[in-house]
Design goal:
Helix content is about 25%, strand content about 25%. It has about 525 residues and is of the alpha+beta class. The chain folds into 2 domains: about 5-255 and about 490-510, Periplasmic binding protein-like II (D-Maltodextrin-Binding Protein, domain 2); about 260-485, Roll (Dipeptide-binding Protein, domain 3). The strands form 6 sheets. Strands 1, 12, 13, 14, 17, 18, 19 and 20 form an 8-stranded mixed sheet that branches. A 4-stranded mixed sheet has the order 2-11-10-9. The termini are far apart.
Length: about 525
């Protein structure tokens, strides 16, 4: 536990999660030149702050380096676990100890065998570097110990039956030069010439040889450069992180491959003051939100009222609280004693002899255009139900401070899920991102049941119970899960299957139909 979610309170933090712009000069950029006699896939990344896969803060650099390195587990588009370097795992009864077995016979690019020492080295290096983008993934791991050359024991600070969903970080060779790009992946380093990283296929790869001869990773300083190279057909695949999404039109001849990115947008209610101290009004507000409209504002987002991705194995098919139901919202408001007393379309109530409107302020940080548009949509939805909504736009520093101090009625925020199933930090009373202040012993018990569920059946029952309580108490109003995408050129053939934390997950299976001179 304690590793799943990072609160996204300011736009700058979203940039750090999705890939920084500017800065860094490790790989100077030059014009992309294709070599016509090779079947080599060309991709892009931003200028690297570092080529150390554990320490880079740039999403596009991490994405590109995962072609060289491999994780213990990958997570597919349905948030199903996919073993990569891991062979098997087993928890003790209360999910506080996990024994992991890694695959035998896997070779590093230098011909040495992968062993448990490499995995332990990687984990300890991440835990020793709080600036690593993977640091939170291992926050609940107290220590790891070598059982033998192929088995490791994880000791956890709290029950966490979903630990394996956090083990998608790149495994590095013990004590190797982190800039040497020595991995276990389908492609291995050929050369770096100052403007590109040239990779060739790894003939000793444990999954067999890649379909193409290699991959070239071009460094790009700006979105404009990235877009021009892709539009000219010199780049075969580009991630959303490389694009100026407002000014880039995807051609019909290109293909857009959408995948979830783990960012959950929601409205946080202050349950300790104001109108949202009444659970009925939290329920009403949640039902009054039109998530389909919001999904279009966020662009390809997936509507979801619950902080687990719809379609994932933990999401109960019977849970339909994402549905927009304005009539039900109005019924709940009426049952709470509010009604339109003056015929203006807004609900009021007489409290202690005073005429009181059913109003609140929605706190929103400046700087994120999509979130500002989403706030206006939420306001429109809730006012149709009878709420009076005032949008309070403020700078990032004030926004953060107000939320931490509880000085708000409701806020529009987001969490980035390092583990798609660990919702403890968001819903438990002591959760680090439970800034809405909601507290319930029943909810805490249900969250604890989920986190200690060591079998599929136990997890299904626990999640169903948690979702039921979530609907009854409505601590937050979930909106959408944001998505990401990879765009490929017409030259790319075969199934392109990006994963949430690895957009080039199956690049070894890509083929090129032809290459321009």
């Amino acid at each position: 536990m304690k590793k799943l979610v990072t609160m996204i309170l300011i736009t700058a933090l979203i940039a750090s999660l999705c890939g920084c712009r500017g800065g860094g000069a490790e790989l100077p950029t030059e014009e992309v030149v294709l070599v016509s006699d090779e079947k080599v896939i060309n991709i892009q990344m931003r200028e690297a702050d570092t080529l150390d896969p554990i320490l880079t803060e740039r999403q596009s650099v991490r994405d590109a380096l995962m072609i060289v390195y491999e994780p213990l587990f990958d997570i597919d588009e349905d948030f199903t676990i996919v073993p990569v370097l891991a062979q098997s795992y087993a928890f003790n009864e209360n999910a506080t100890v996990m024994t992991l077995k890694i695959k035998e016979g896997v070779l590093w690019h230098n011909g040495q065998l992968l062993s448990s020492e490499d995995v332990i080295y990687t984990i300890e290096r991440i835990k020793a570097n709080p600036a690593s983008s993977y640091y939170l993934n291992l926050a609940g791991v107290e220590r790891v110990e070598k059982l033998n050359d192929y088995e490791i024991v994880f000791y956890l600070t709290e029950p966490d039956a979903f630990l394996i969903y956090s083990l998608y970080f790149p495994i590095m060779r013990a004590n190797a030069d982190p800039l040497a790009l020595t991995g276990t992946g389908a492609f291995m380093l050929k050369e770096m010439d100052g403007k590109t990283i040239s990779l060739v296929k790894n003939s000793a790869w444990h999954k067999g040889e890649a379909m193409c001869d290699g991959v070239r990773i071009f460094s790009m300083r700006t979105s404009e450069m990235a877009q021009e190279s892709f539009s000219a057909g010199k780049i075969h695949a580009v991630t959303r992180d490389m694009l100026d999404t407002e000014n880039f039109a995807i051609k019909e001849s290109n293909t857009k491959h959408i995948y979830p990115d783990g960012t959950f947008e929601f409205v946080g209610f202050n349950s300790k003051r104001g109108i949202f101290s009444d659970a009925l009004l939290r329920i009403a507000a949640t039902n009054a939100v039109d998530r389909m409209s919001l999904s279009r504002i966020y662009g390809d987002a997936v509507p979801s009222g619950f902080p687990v991705m719809p379609g994932s194995s933990a999401f109960s098919p019977s849970y339909e609280h994402s549905e927009y139901n304005l009539d039900y919202a109005k019924e709940v408001i009426f049952s709470a004693g509010w009604m339109d007393l003056d015929g203006d379309g807004k609900s009021e109530k007489v409290i202690d002899g005073n005429w009181t409107e059913m109003g609140f302020s929605l706190l929103v940080a400046k700087g994120d255009k999509m979130r500002s548009l989403a706030a206006e949509e939420v306001k429109k939805n809730l006012e149709a139900a009878g709420f009076t909504v005032h949008i309070e736009l403020t700078d990032a520093e004030s926004y953060n401070e107000k939320i931490k101090e509880g000085d708000y009625d409701a806020f529009l925020g987001a969490v980035y899920c390092a583990d798609p199933y660990d919702i403890s930090e968001l819903l438990s009373s002591e959760g680090k991102v439970n800034f809405e202040g909601y507290s319930s012993p029943e909810m805490d018990f249900a969250v604890a049941e989920v986190m200690s569920a060591t079998s599929v059946d136990k997890a299904s029952v626990a999640f169903t119970r948690l979702q039921s309580l979530y609907v009854a108490y409505q601590p937050i109003a979930g909106l959408v899960f944001r998505t990401n995408y990879v765009v490929t050129s017409p030259y790319v053939e075969g199934e392109v299957k990006p994963y949430p934390y690895s957009p080039y997950a199956n690049i070894a299976l890509w083929q090129l139909a032809g290459v321009e001179d």
